[in-house]
Amino acid sequence: MKIYNLGGKGTLLDQFLSEIRDHEIQLDRARFRNNLARTGEIIAYEMSKMFPFTDEDITTPLGIANVPTLQEQPVIATVLRAGLPFHQGFINFFDHAESAFIAGYRKYDKSGDFEIKIDYISSPPVEDRIVIINDPMLASGGSIEMAYKALLNYGKQKHVHIATVIASKEGLDYIERVLPESDISVWAGAIDDELTVKSYIVPGLGDAGDLAYGRKSDN
């Protein structure tokens, strides 16, 4: 598994990440969603450097230009609901891509432990295709694992790119342990050291789904 940590290099990505993390700026939900989308766009751009391109002759009004063009569009899969604005950034750039949607949630028991449940998935065929699985937070790694395995029902992917805004080191170690396939790359805006006993990333940013769309009912 190859890990690309794109943050901490003094770029606009770091500016967007600072605003995504800031508890006062987070109060503006529209800005929070927009920053998630812009982060998705930046990761999509960096990721595209690994995609196959072929040179094509393009007819302009004044002549012929030889230009590298994208040879293959990916399938972009997002984990609902927090992933929706992040997903938008990817389809803004891979604008001919197909999309998959996966609804997952944490099912808690009385002790406070939880397991990840997938109760809905909609996906095109992914056999021998490049797949991008995006989720703003890679905390325990359980959601990504379940999303990856659910997509296998639609075919064996050629290569899987996992994209996240913030990952935990523990979650990355878990993904590498349970999905040891060599055809996985992880792209993160930042990697944080700590994961709480309830599997929340510290310092992280909080609950991305609640910040983007409002607090969930306990029911």
Question: What are the salient characteristics of this protein?
Answer:
Rossmann fold, 35% strand, alpha/beta, 219 residues, two-stranded antiparallel ribbon, globular, 6 helices
Query: Helix proportion of residues, in percent?
Result: 25-40%
Q: What count of structural domains?
A: 1
The whole-number mean of residue pLDDT values reads 92
Kindly name the structural category: alpha/beta
Task: Summarize the helix and strand pattern as letters.
Answer: EHHEEEHEEEEHEHEEEH
Secondary structure: number of strands:
12
How large a portion of the residues is in β-strands, by DSSP E?
25-35%
Shape: globular
Euclidean distance between termini CA atoms: 38 Å
* CATH C-level name: Alpha Beta
Structure annotation, total helices: 6
Largest sheet: 8 strands, mixed
Pick out the low-confidence regions.
Answer: none
Q: Kindly identify the CATH topology.
A: Rossmann fold
Radius of gyration over C-alpha positions, nearest whole angstrom: 18 Å
